[in-house]
# Entry
Amino acid sequence: MERLFFMLELQSSLNDATNGNSWEQGVTKNGKKIDWYRCIYMEAFELIDSYPWKHWKSIDAKVDRENIKIETVDIWHFVLSEAIKEARLKEVDLKTLAENIQSKEYFQNFLKGQKSTIGDIYREVEIVEALITSSILRVDMDKLMERFFDVAKVAKLDFDELYTLYLGKNILNRFRQDYGYKDGTYIKIWNGVEDNVVLREILEREPNIAPNQLYLRLENIYNSLQS
# Structure
């Protein structure tokens, strides 16, 4: 449960820093409305574009499995945020929230590493669409979580990789905010590739890198773009 609790703490902290300490009321410190369900389904639509589903375009294209993992982790940020919002409004602490999530059968199955073996990209897309439908319909948190872990299995993620990629993306999101993401001055393409790709390459080389070291690594690369 420690790693799940840690992810909840990190997400709560990121949301506090980015959106203000009362973001669970549904509005940022800048007066922008927050809708985590919309964030989930819009991110899921992006995930679908990692599949070569278009019958009229790039018919020989391959599934971008690595980007599917990144997009799934992005969705996880928003699922965690909605869970934390609901918990705060009910005055449930994060430790109890982590215990509640861990007690669910869908989470226990995910911990066992039961990845999907479907292999049919159209069926996989349908599973992502089930998450989209659930988020559009604003189902309860248990059902939303269950649909998310269905997608995580399709993405070939296990809990260890979800945790590692989440930590990495959390640090990248903090870095983006620190370097002007909100006001539009942040540079997302680094030497011809998106910062997500740079992050993935660092984590592949150094899977056990500490969060503060990862931040410094990103900072060094980013600053070199400005020189």
Observations:
- The chain has one domain: 2-165.
- The radius of gyration is 18 Å.
- The first helix runs from residue 2 to 19.
